[in-house]
TrEMBL record:
InterPro entries xref list: AhpC/TSA (IPR000866), Peroxiredoxin (IPR050217), Peroxiredoxin_AhpC-typ (IPR024706), Peroxiredoxin_C (IPR019479), Thioredoxin-like_sf (IPR036249), Thioredoxin_domain (IPR013766)
Biological role stated in the UniProt entry: Thiol-specific peroxidase that catalyzes the reduction of hydrogen peroxide and organic hydroperoxides to water and alcohols, respectively. Plays a role in cell protection against oxidative stress by detoxifying peroxides.
Entry-linked PROSITE patterns: THIOREDOXIN_2
Keywords: Oxidoreductase
The keyword Iron appears for this protein: no
Keyword Oxidoreductase: yes
Coiled coil region boundaries: none
Name of the protein this chain belongs to: Thioredoxin peroxidase
PANTHER family: THIOREDOXIN PEROXIDASE, THIOREDOXIN-DEPENDENT PEROXIDE REDUCTASE, MITOCHONDRIAL
Domain (Thioredoxin): residue spans on this chain: 1-161
Length: 198
């Protein structure tokens, strides 16, 4: 389990958001001002994956406005990533998505994040990494189960809130909601006001 630990660093080949290919894409050098979301998906040119990648891309600006960079990763080559980006959405492609896609050909990154399935493909792992490299949130879905990208934005908001205010975020917390002091009095005060909303 990686939550509370430092995210395993890597340097790998990647296709950047502008379509250029670099051989020295480093995770820690590509964290946003306040962190990153690193997400794994099984394979290019598949079925659930494009819906997730496009959903991340559509929200990339929202993540960046929060100081968070989005980074995708699969066991495909950079050439496959590039070809998939160049394939129109209405032909099964993802179009020119607004994030880098990392090529994990030797599957070591997927291994390091414990998402490699049967030495074959990566499960749908998503890792919220704080600015200092600490993994603060992780969720791993089985292959047929698509992610909720809006929930990841909510988790980013909870991380940023707790980092700034030192309070904790109760169940279902949304940006703008009241936080909770992490002590007995704080819990009692919060529940007295909000029990029926839970």
């Amino acid at each position: 389990m990686l939550v509370t630990k430092k995210a395993p660093d890597f340097t790998a080949t990647a296709v950047l958001a502008d379509g250029s290919i670099v051989e020295d894409f480093n995770l820690y050098e590509n964290l946003g001002e306040k962190g990153a979301v690193l997400f794994f998906y099984p394979l290019d040119f598949t079925f659930v994956c494009p819906s997730e990648i496009i959903a991340f891309s559509h929200r990339a600006k929202e993540f960046r406005e929060r100081g968070i960079n989005i980074i995708g990763c699969s066991v495909d080559s950079q050439f496959s990533h590039f070809a998939w980006r160049e394939t129109p959405v209405n032909q099964g492609g993802i179009g020119r998505v607004d994030m880098p896609l990392v090529a994990d050909l030797n599957k070591q990154i997927a291994r390091d994040y414990d998402v490699l399935l049967n030495e074959s493909v990566a499960l749908r792992g998503s890792f919220l990494i704080d600015a200092d490299g600490t993994v603060r949130h992780a969720v791993i879905n089985d292959l047929p189960l698509g992610r909720n990208i809006d929930e990841m934005i909510r988790m980013v908001d909870t991380m940023l809130f707790t980092n700034e205010y030192g309070e904790v975020c109760p169940a279902g917390w949304q940006k703008g909601d009241e936080g909770m002091k992490a002590d007995t009095a704080g819990v009692a005060e919060y529940l007295a006001k909000h029990e029926n909303e839970l």
